[in-house]
Amino acid sequence: ELAAGWEAVCPDPTTLLGTAPALTDDTGEVEGLLRRRSEAFATVQEHYYREPPRIERGWRHHLLDTDGRAYLDMINNVAVLGHGHPRLAAAVARQLHRLNTNSRFHYGAVVELSERLAAALPAPLDTVFLVNSGTEANDLALRLAWAWAGRREVVAVREAYHGWSDATDAISTSVADNPDALGTRPGWVHTVPAPNSYRGAYRRADTARYGQEAAASIRDLTAQGLPPAAFIAEPYYGNAGGMALPDGYLAGVYEAVREAGGLCVADEVQVGFGRLGEYFWGFEQQGVVPDVVTVAKAMGNGHPLGAVITRRDIAEHYRSEGYFFSSAGGSPVSSVVGLTVMDILRDEKLQENARTVGAHLRSRLLELADRHPLIGAVHGTGLYVGVELVRDHQERTPAPEETAAICERMRELGVIVQPTSDRMCVLKIKPPLCLTRESADFFVDTLDSVLREGW
Ligand code: PLP
């Protein structure tokens, strides 16, 4: 079955929406297991819906729940290839039969994955550390910078998310109720305003000022004797809105950081690996080359895998003072996953698909915005799209109750889509990169019919 390939195993299941056959669970075991597990399973993900769907399997850009209902998955920035990819499943099965162990050995796949990653990045980024998650990758990036600069100050962008370890949590404000309440954060954390061209101080009028002011505040810090060891940002305004950074934003900020002797870290955990369509990496859109790049999510298509890619001198400096070891980071199976994901992205032209289907999706959403005043704006590049839901176009007041109700209703109609936060109410659309034009239309038509119900 696996050898038969993707299409044979799994034709585009859009047609199955609402009609998918129930999964075989004669014994009730699956249902029972899920219920038991849900009591012990502590995660914020559970709170997106009043009653979280119990997902049992996935096919391409669809999910099936235990009642056999199919959902279009518009939020999965992890499973970029889609769910249940037969080629990936076969590669993992083969490697599990051959070897899986900790990362103390050199074997073909780890060498090849490191080389492939380095080759996918511009010079001089040529040295790779393999880890298990985005949090670990960003944690290590901070350590590299602290060792390199010999000091601790870090500048991060507000409304960003970089992970949940002590250090990455300290620089993440997107999950805080009030991102301006920085009082409880460690003294080495400094932030610059979110460059949000829809809601921020300068809106669309003068977006260049975001970069100029961020660079100025970095120079101020340096003048006060607190030069940053690192500046870290997603090279796309991802977690808070799904929109590109203002043109030239990173170039100006990176210049100020480098004058201070600090390292520029690009967190590509969400946007890297072709999601932006035109670009394989988010930093390309900004025309810069970072000193450190962190990746995860897409790299493993859901398997725990991440990496830090940096310059040789930075890596060697860290190794001369510090220590890095990860038992499972870059294990044989993880390395095979990483390599196969890169092969499939290339062979199935998924970056190209993100470009064309993403453009179609955005143009259809813009048509919808003309008809539905609740849509304040449509942002995005490739298959990372943000739809702002607002109560009025002048003040751009977020619409949290409406947004939550719309997401619930979309789910009833077979679409999983979720907002950023109550403060911002942006539908963050980041589906698997295999999304088809037909499924993009299904999403827009469903949103249209929900909005017609009246909000
Ligand atoms: N960085 C960004 C931009 C993210 O979106 C996330 C996760 O959402 C992380 C880092 C943390 O990655 P992980 O959940 O793999 O630890």
Automatic annotation (TrEMBL):
Instruction: Give the family from UniProt.
Output: Belongs to the class-III pyridoxal-phosphate-dependent aminotransferase family.
What protein am I looking at?
Aminotransferase
> From what organism does this protein derive?
Actinacidiphila oryziradicis
- Residues shown, of full length: 593 to 1047 of 1047
